[in-house]
Amino acid sequence: MGPANQTHISEFLLLGFSEKPEHQLPFFGLFLGIYLIAVGGNLLIMLTIASDSHLHTPMYFFLSNLSLVDLCLVSTLVPKMLVNLLTHSKAISYAGCLTQMYFFMVFACSDNLLLAVMAYDRFVAICHPLSYVTIMSPQFCGLLVLLSWMISVLNALIHSLLVMRLSFCTEHEITHFYCDLTPVLKLSCTDTLINNILVYLTTGLLGALPFAGILFSYTQICSSIMRVPSTGGKYKAFSTCGSHLCVVSLFYGTVLGVYLSSSVTQSSSKRSVASVMYTVVTPMLNPFIYSLRNKDIKDALRRLISRTTSFQ
Fold it and tell me: Mean pLDDT for the chain?
């Protein structure tokens, strides 16, 4: 009998953060609050940008797409975790695990690529202001977003199809609070060499290259800002990309924290806590970073609130 005949276990167990029953309810309340804030904040950003013509620019078009991705990312992970915490269950079906893993890879990769696209947008706006309208045309902006989604979907699809060919025997405990690719591969009782090679390859291409692009963009941006003669001009130029720089720092800082903590410690609970930062907390904080540091967003929010109250 080949490995394919012993493949399909019915479910996996997500070990999560703590096995102590008294911790389940506090964790449920904490993550329910984070989820509601993340959903409400990102929906508000999307509604504000869509309803205000002053924000129909490339920068805010990319921001609305980032908010959509963040909304989808937390909705892929948190609801299942809340159900498991409330029911004191750790089970997730085989099909549910693969589905969650697929959509997580789609939205996490899209998040990463959109941050690189937004950095390029700020690079063109500050370093080539006279050509900005020509370069960042609506068609080109739409193409950049479409390519980000297509690359993310294709990447997730390839990984998922390769996981589906694997066999899973007796071991079915995932040391995480969601179905992540690497922990799932560790449970397989068949050869995962091709899967692991692809993981390293795509991490390099879709992780390191966008990050290198962001670093290059901000190197050029800082160089251009330093050549601005007036202090006020420097502040105005930097303020246009300050929010994005904060989001980039938060996203990549927490991602690096996950991998560094994984290499230093073998504790599944510590790795899970580190993962929460970029999968759940970062999508919650992004709307606040953009709304609190961005005058255009704050003005648009005021106009939206005033229009809403006037209709009541």
Answer: 86
Cβ atoms of 160 and 98 closer than 8 Å: yes
Cβ-Cβ contacts under 8 Å for 209 (sequence gap 6 or more): none
Q: Is the pLDDT of residue 28 over 60?
A: yes
What value does the mean pLDDT take over residues 44-63?
Answer: 92
In this structure, is residue 6 part of a structural domain?
no
Q: What are phi and psi of 12, to 5 degrees?
A: -110, 165
**Among 251, 236, 244, which Cα is nearest to 218's?**
244
Q: What 3-state class would DSSP assign to 208?
A: helix
**In this structure, what token pair is assigned to residue 255?**
């991602």
The pTM score is: 0.89
pLDDT surpasses 70 at 305: yes
| Residue 233 belongs to some domain of the structure | yes
Strand order of the sheet with strand 11-14?
A: 91-93, 11-14, 173-174
Looking at the domain assignment, is residue 73 inside a domain?
yes
Quickly tell me which residue has 């409330």 as its tokens. 86
- Using CB atoms within 10 A of its CB, is residue 16 exposed (0-12), middle (13-18) or buried (19+)? buried
Q: At what angle do helices 24-51 and 282-292 cross, to 10 degrees?
A: 40
Section 21-47 average pLDDT: 91
Please, which pLDDT band fits residue 267 given cuts at 50, 70 and 90? low
Map tokens 């922990």 to a residue.
183
Asked if residue 3 belongs to a domain, the reply is no
Closest CA to 64 of 145, 10, 7, 124: 145
Query: Does residue 5 register a pLDDT over 50?
Result: no
